[in-house]
Amino acid sequence: MVSPVTFDVRFSTWREDAACLDVIDEVSFFPDAEDLSAIARAKAVCATCPVASECLTWAIETNQSEGVWGGHTPKERRSIRRRWIEEIEQAS
Ligand code: SF4
Q1: What is the pLDDT of residues 28-48, one digit of tens each?
Q2: 60 in ligand 1 pocket by Cβ < 6 Å?
Q3: Closest Cα to atom 8, ligand 1: which residue?
Q4: Which of 15, 31, 50, 90 could form a disulfide bond with 38, CB atoms 3.0-4.6 angstroms apart?
Q5: Is residue 19 within 8 Å of residue 45, measured between CB atoms?
Q6: Domain residue extents for the chain
């Protein structure tokens, strides 16, 4: 069984470099699942983000169920998280 990850805001300094901070009023990072153009706009910002890897890791580890994080939708993250959990379980 995977232990829950406790999020501590003190360890999320990567957020200060997030590309979405510059467009937060223009681009939705919590689009409807059917709104493919809005999802594409959010992903385009993530593609330029210097902390995309840290963002995605955080979203996977804390099991964020909504929004585009690290350039990935919730559905895409669920698949990554499943593989991540399998790897942890196989290693233990
Ligand atoms: S990867 Fe996307 S959601 Fe994450 S911090 Fe960067 S721009 Fe924001």
Answers
A1: 999 999 999 999 999 999 999
A2: no
A3: 20
A4: 31
A5: yes
A6: 10-91
